[in-house]
């Protein structure tokens, strides 16, 4: 789990947090050997200077990544999407005059470092799957989530990675046209949910993603090869890595799965 010392969700770091409770459920109910790692410290060693210049470069890089991503997923409603990107660029101009605090860059770098650290720890552990949560990941249906995860990890055909959280709705993201309901893999939890195969590798933020070991190896290699500057949030950096891997045929159509409705909510976006 990715967290930090001054988090709004300190309970997540302890035995009452989702990571610890879910690991216990998977172990006691299904016999999965689990290892819980919770990061609360600042791990960034990139040497990137967090100042106004780096903030401005970061904001511009995010917009370029988003524009590439819009083309990658072939968003429908071209006019609406153009207006949305136009509004984002207008906000960018505003931020050029009223720059966010440079601490933003330091926070982004530390979050990325934490995600990469957990990915590498997961690979070093030899685990078949690695579930990375952010500390605002939350569920009221722990047994349903554990049953569903057990089914996904035990399935004959497994995904490169599975999106398990709702941060934005599918409609907000404009990705519904990429989904095909799976006929082979069903959600094994008690709640009514469906597993969808996405024709392009896409994410709904990095709040809760289940990675397969086989895919995590090339993903980590790609993420570590990407430049540290300009600084991108891990959400967008992951999308850039996925686009690169897809275009290099390192991940294929329908290798990315989504569970809908998502079993995990991102509390910071659904308070």
Descriptive report:
The structure is a single chain. This protein has 271 residues and is of the alpha+beta class. It has one domain (10-269). The protein has helices spanning 18-30, 52-72, 78-97, 103-125, 142-154, 170-173, 213-225, 234-247; strands at 129-133, 137-138, 161-163, 165-166, 179-181, 194-198, 208-212, 256-260, 264-266. The strands form two sheets. Strands 1-7-3-8-6-5 form a six-stranded mixed sheet. Strands 2-9-4 form a three-stranded mixed sheet, with no helix packed on it. The radius of gyration is 18 Å and the shape is globular.
Shape: globular
Beta-strand portion reads 5-15%
DSSP helical segment count: 8
- Please outline the major beta sheet: 6 strands, mixed
The SSE order reads HHHHEEHEEHEEEHHEE
- Mean pLDDT score, rounded? 92
The low-pLDDT segments are none
| Rg | 18 Å
Please give the number of β-strands.
9
Terminal Cα span? 20 Å
> Helicity level, as a percent range?
40-55%
Structural class: alpha+beta
How many domains? Answer: 1
The order of strands across the largest sheet is 1-7-3-8-6-5
Question: SSE layout and pairings?
Answer:
Blueprint: H1 18-30, H2 52-72, H3 78-97, H4 103-125, E1 129-133, E2 137-138, H5 142-154, E3 161-163, E4 165-166, H6 170-173, E5 179-181, E6 194-198, E7 208-212, H7 213-225, H8 234-247, E8 256-260, E9 264-266
Parallel strand pairs: 3-8, 4-9
Antiparallel strand pairs: 1-7, 2-9, 3-7, 5-6, 6-8
Task: Write a concise synopsis of the structure shown.
The chain is an alpha+beta fold and 271 residues long. Helices cover 45% and strands 12% of the residues. The protein has one domain (10-269).
């Amino acid at each position: 789990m990715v967290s930090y010392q001054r988090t709004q969700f300190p309970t997540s770091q302890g035995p009452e947090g989702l990571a610890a409770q879910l690991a216990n459920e998977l172990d006691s109910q299904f016999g999965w050997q689990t290892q819980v790692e919770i990061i609360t410290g600042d791990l960034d060693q990139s040497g990137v200077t967090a100042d106004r210049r780096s903030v401005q470069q970061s904001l511009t890089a995010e917009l370029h990544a988003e524009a590439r991503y819009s083309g990658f997923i072939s968003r429908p409603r071209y006019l609406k999407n153009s207006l949305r990107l136009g509004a984002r660029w207008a906000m960018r101009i505003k931020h050029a005059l009223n720059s966010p605090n440079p601490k933003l860059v330091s926070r982004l770098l530390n979050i990325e470092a934490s995600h990469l650290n957990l990915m590498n720890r997961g690979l070093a552990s030899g685990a078949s799957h690695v579930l990375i949560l952010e500390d605002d990941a939350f569920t009221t249906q722990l047994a349903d989530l554990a049953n569903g995860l057990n089914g996904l990890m035990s399935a004959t055909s497994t995904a490169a990675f599975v999106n398990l959280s709702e941060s934005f709705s599918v409609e907000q993201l404009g990705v519904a046209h990429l989904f095909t309901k799976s006929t082979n893999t069903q959600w094994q939890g008690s709640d009514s949910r469906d597993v969808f195969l996405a024709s392009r590798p896409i994410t709904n933020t990095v709040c809760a993603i289940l990675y397969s070991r086989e895919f995590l190896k090339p993903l980590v290699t790609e993420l570590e090869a990407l430049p540290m500057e300009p600084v991108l949030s891990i959400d967008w950096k992951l999308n850039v890595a996925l686009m690169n891997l897809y275009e290099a045929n390192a991940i294929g159509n329908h290798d990315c799965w989504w569970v809908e409705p998502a079993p995990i909510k991102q509390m910071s976006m659904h308070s």
